[in-house]
Amino acid sequence: MKTTTTILFFFFMSVNILAQTQRWAIQGVIQDTQAKGLPSATITLLDPKDSTLVTFGVSNPQGGFEVKNLREDELLVQISFVGYRTFSQLVKKPTGSPIFQFGTIKLEESTEELEGVTVEAIAPVTIKKDTIEYNAAAFKTQPNANVEDLLKRLPGVEVDSEGNIKAQGETVRRIMVDGKEFFANDPKLASKNLLAEAIDKIQIYDRKSDQSQFTGIDDGQREKTINLQLKDSHKRGYFGNVTAGYGTDNRYALKGNVNKFTEKSQLSLLGLSNNTNEQGFSIDDYINFNGGIQSFSSGGMVRVVVGGPGATSSIPLNTGQRMNGIMNSHAFGANLNNEFSKKTKMTGSYFFNYLDHYIQQNSDRINFFPQGNLNFNEQSRQDNVNANHRANLIVDHQIDSLNSFRSTTNLTYTQSDRATNSITRNSDSQDNTLNSGERTNLNTGDNFQFNTDFLLRHRFKKPGRTISANFNLGANQSDYEGSLYAENQFFTGTPSTEIIRQQNFQDRDALNYGTNLSYTQPIGGRKYLELVYNFRQNHNRVNQEVYDWEEENLVLNTDLSNKFNSIYTYHRPGANLSWNRQNYNLVTGVAWQATRLKGDLLLADERIQNRFENFLPSLRFNYNFSNTRNLGFNYGTSVTEPTIEQLQPVVNNADPLNLYVGNPELKPAYLHNMRLNYNSFDMGKFISFFANANVNYTKNAIVNSQTIDENLVRTVMPVNVEDQWTANGNVNFGFPIKPLNSNFSIGPNGVYQRGLNLINGQEDEIKISNFGGNIRYDYNWEEYLMIGLSANLSRQRTGYSFNPQQNQLFFNQSYNAEATVNLLKKYTIGGNFNYLVYRSETTDFSETIPLLNLSVSRFILKNNKGEIKLSGQNLLNQNVGVSQRADVNYVEQTVTNNLGRFVLLSFTYKLGSNPMNNMPRPGGGGMRMIRMGG
């Protein structure tokens, strides 16, 4: 503690001395030769001695600029704007005034290059219409750094500990490489595997929808996108790196990637193998690993949530930001982009992931019921093994100037094995055992998914008039088998014991196909009409057979078995009207959706027939105050139909003490969604402000009703309730502190939701509020020292209408400190300390987890192509993870095993067949010399 206090004292003393140095500023106005202001021009200030970057700024919408807090006696000022000649002038610190006035600077249009020598500064940031472009050379990173490390250096870009990327306050959904798709738009595969030194420019923009790009009509839909422009030197030969490491407790890590890019093709190979809990997969892979979405409604302990399918009504609050359990992961991927001609392009990728995940959990839950509380404890062990193959192929062909087509095909094949053993106990408030059980579930099987889309587009000669037709076909086939052994004891009334021995077999087939037609017509005054029609039909066949062991014979259990065929048919015609103006666009529309369901329960000889009809209005509005300041509002409606599992009146007894049964009387949930967002980013001062607000209101919401029998066996059934709603909002404000070489950001957020649930036939209103936020401070001293301090806080309160005394209040907190020190251009020392706090005010639960990681690296070989790294992970040996949650009628704390302390020694070698790849990159915003003529 004394050491920390001393460091902070000297740090702030040095800051104070620095702040006392006399500062000065430059001011001026940038115009073209017609006296029109040039907005977003770049003002770059260089040290004239060695041409390194000192600072830079950007002009305002009127062309005015001011760069403050200068302390150098002499600076080289360069002003640049796309399409204009660069202005350069040597400026000395003024003596009579703290401000150097440029007055009006008129830039001339660039026509042809002058002979002689031109000195061109590397402008760190430029704005090209709606695109912010960063020059990678102005943001220095360490050798062998990946793109993720580079993104962390960019103003206005945030990367969290799990690699999720935000730009200007919005989540980045895709990363392109030279404008081409990369691994089916999984951003992490690009950011974590491509080398930072390969990147020339980073472009951040709001990508319009494919339909908007085709028609030329702005439909208001946006997707935050990053495009990585490669250096010319990395478009010849190959580049990449490989890493191998081995450590204590037989921990190992292997990872590598190789890239070969040209102007017309891109080939990337990547692979990894480790037992250090490093993830080699995206969220889609993880869902497939868990057996698909349908597995969440079967097997294991039933978690009751407020809301219908897909709703995130329950609020899990595990802020540990690390994967629990012990994982062995192996992955391989290949991505290929090829431009056969100017008219034909192809993108393809293949990704394989093998994961062995072992989990031990201990869960303590208090269930609240009108007749009294029940305490629940479960100790479980799971071993899940999954092998997942995923392939994607996209072909674009421009038939002629008016016609084009695109085909998109996705294939996924998954094999999985799961073994689960759990011991459960229910007790009353006096800790008397009411029932207990032990069960073992074994499941194995495979799943195959296929989807293909064929899009044909025609553009008429009249601008804005288009027609497009999309045809899609999909298939899903799964085959699983498993066994259940359970021994349950009941102590209420007459004590009894129940033993269950079962085998189950399940195969499913699904086929879906449909079409989407769109016609756009200009109607004058930059207004457009779009007529759309969507048709889709889904065929499902489920064959689930459950057999009881009677002595040595298997006997079909007709109560748990099910053979079900169904057909969902959708028709949705609609129309949209759009107004496009220079500063705003407005799109309003309405659709009518008719849904029909026909289902046959073959074993019960019953038929389910439902028909639903809904009008679906929508409204989208975007207003651009400038290139970096905009306001958006979206209102939309949608219908969530019950799933096949929710409609089948068949009992799922994977957990015999927590049963699940479907409800054929379910109606679709009708959702209203409203979203308001405001974004502002000052490119000159790097001040950002982003705010978002969302409100969801659902009629006929689908929730889970609970019924508890005399043996305390819980049966869960989905039912419709009148309504529920959720409101959430978040704000993020960030700004630099230039005298301290620092950045600061704060982001408060909040969620409030109200829902209804049924417990033993009694309607219960639940109100959940969650308020908190995050705060972060970053300090950077050139490339030598980087410090980051952050905190993430959360306060959740859950209130129950049937008994306010059972209301819950708990807190989750995460504090993080990280630092990197670079010494003598050859050494890097890094550390990360994370302190997690979980505390409940109502159950006296309290848990703290300190996590410490340290590493030291030494760069070797010519041009730092090699790196030796010694790293210690979880040095305080905190081998558990904790989460706590309050939901419909319970509060729960869960403790899960995690990877303990280990030390790893690794070696990384940078690959590259082109000598230019190994040249040192200019750092700190150096300058390029361009010689023209003789």
Give a concise summary.
This is TonB-dependent receptor. The protein is mainly beta.
How is the topology of this model organized?
Blueprint: H1 2-20, E1 24-31, E2 42-46, E3 53-58, E4 64-70, E5 74-80, E6 87-92, E7 99-106, E8 116-121, E9 125-128, E10 131-135, H2 147-151, E11 157-159, E12 165-167, E13 170-171, E14 174-177, H3 187-191, E15 199-208, H4 210-215, E16 222-230, E17 239-247, E18 252-261, E19 265-274, H5 283-289, E20 326-339, E21 344-369, E22 372-398, E23 403-427, E24 433-459, E25 466-490, E26 496-524, E27 527-550, E28 553-556, E29 562-580, E30 584-601, E31 606-626, E32 629-640, H6 644-647, E33 651-655, E34 658-661, E35 669-682, E36 687-708, E37 714-737, E38 742-759, E39 762-781, E40 785-800, E41 808-823, E42 827-840, E43 846-860, E44 866-873, E45 880-886, E46 890-897, E47 902-912, E48 927-932
Parallel strand pairs: 1-7, 14-16, 34-37
Antiparallel strand pairs: 1-4, 2-3, 2-5, 5-6, 8-48, 9-10, 10-15, 11-12, 12-13, 15-16, 17-18, 17-47, 18-19, 19-20, 20-21, 21-22, 21-46, 22-23, 23-24, 24-25, 25-26, 26-27, 27-28, 27-29, 29-30, 30-31, 31-32, 32-35, 33-34, 35-36, 36-37, 37-38, 38-39, 39-40, 40-41, 41-42, 42-43, 43-44, 44-47, 45-46
Protein name: TonB-dependent receptor
Subcellular location: Cell outer membrane
Organism: Mariniradius saccharolyticus AK6
